[in-house]
Amino acid sequence: MPQKAEHFYRLGATECLLDDETNAVKSFKKAGTLDAKTRMVDPTAASVLAGMALDEADRASAESKRRSALARFAAHTARAVSAGDQYTHKRLQETFNEADLVRLHANNIEKSVSIAVARRMVEEALHKPRS
């Protein structure tokens, strides 16, 4: 497999669809490592794309479309985490702590592996010692 971050974000999203949380996190972390080498990722853009994917999941009527949108949400969140700073990480955490959590709960989305992966990536970033 070529060593390009995008391939690993896609692999992580696919692993979310397969309910494989452990390997999804590994793939997203590998993608983040590759992204860090290029320094060409805008964490704000990745955060916006994550929010758009979450909105799409909320509106999806078919379960397959909801799961696909949530897998994209996890990938965009992972990209924002890897490229972002503490401010970005805190903003992402707010996605889970504010009104979105109510919406997620109402639609039973919060039980998704994709949401668990995204939460885990954000939580780990917030608790990582600053360099």
How would you explain this protein's 3D organization?
- The chain is mostly helical.
- It has one domain (5-127).
- Helices cover 79% and strands 0% of the residues.
- The protein has 7 helices and no strands.
- It has helices spanning 5-17, 21-38, 43-59, 63-83, 86-97, 99-106, 113-127.
- α3 packs antiparallel against α4 (63-83).
- It is globular.
Key descriptive features of the protein:
131 residues, mainly alpha
Structure in a nutshell:
The chain is mainly alpha-helical and 131 residues long. Helices cover 79% and strands 0% of the residues.
Give the SSE layout:
Layout: H1 5-17, H2 21-38, H3 43-59, H4 63-83, H5 86-97, H6 99-106, H7 113-127
Helix pairs in contact: 1-2, 1-4, 2-4, 2-7, 3-4, 4-7, 5-7
The proportion of residues in beta strands is under 5%
**SSE order in H/E notation?**
HHHHHHH
Secondary structure: helix percent: over 70%
Report the C-alpha radius of gyration, rounded: 14 Å
Give the N-to-C terminal Cα separation. 31 Å
What is the average per-residue confidence, as pLDDT, rounded to a whole number?
A: 86
Query: Helix count?
Result: 7
Secondary structural class: mainly alpha
Uncertain segments are none
Sheet of most strands: none
Count of DSSP strands = 0
What is the total number of structural domains? 1
Question: What gross morphology would you assign?
Answer: globular
